[in-house]
Amino acid sequence: MTITGHNHFFVKHLLEWNRQQNTRQMPWKGEKDPYKIWLSEIILQQTRVDQGLEYYNRFIATFPDVHQLAAAPETTVFKLWEGLGYYTRCKNIIATAKFISQQLNGQFPDQYEAILQLKGIGPYTAAAIASFAFNLPHAVVDGNVFRVLARYFGIATATDSLQGKLQFTLLANELLDKQQPGIYNQALMDFGAVICKPQLPLCATCVLKNKCVAYTDDQVNQLPVKEKKIKKTTRWFYYLVVEYKNKLYVRKRAAKDIWENLYEFILIEDDKPVQPEKIAGLQKVKEIFKSVSFEIIQISPVYKQLLTHQTIQGQFIKVIIEKKLAVDDYKLFTAEEINTLPFPKFITAYLKDKNVSLNLF
Question: Of 200, 222, 244, which closes a domain?
Answer without folding.
Answer: 222
